[in-house]
Structure formats: structure tokens, C-alpha cells
Amino acid sequence: xxxxxxxxxxxIFSRAEIVKGVLIDRDIDAVIINKKDxxxxxxxxxxxxxxxxxxxxxxxxxxxxxxxxx
Length: 70
Description:
alpha+beta, Alpha-Beta Plaits, globular
């Protein structure tokens, strides 16, 4: 995954899925990497949404300007 960059991190899987879905709807390839430790039954670790390096600027603009979980 050397050509991929993290554009969003969250401990909440559903938020990562929403971000990924919005990016894909905007024709940006996105994947989710789950870095939570499944052996620990508490919220520990992050879920990352990653895009290809050549799409980082577009993805970050969408994440920052169009997606809010308030």
C-alpha cells in the first residue's frame, strides 16, 4: 500500500464507511484499513480511510469541506 495515503482516521467504523462511500461516489478510489486490536474488548486503535497518492488533495478537500459528524 505504498502508493496510498491516509486522509481520515476515526475509532468509529461507521464513520469510516461513510467517508469511504462519499469518496467513492466522487470517483476517488478509497479503502478502509482497520488498525483496531480485535483481541482487546475496548476501543483501542484507529480505522483509516486511505486513497491513492495522486487523489489525496481532492480527497482531503471533500473530507474537510463536505463531511461533518457534528
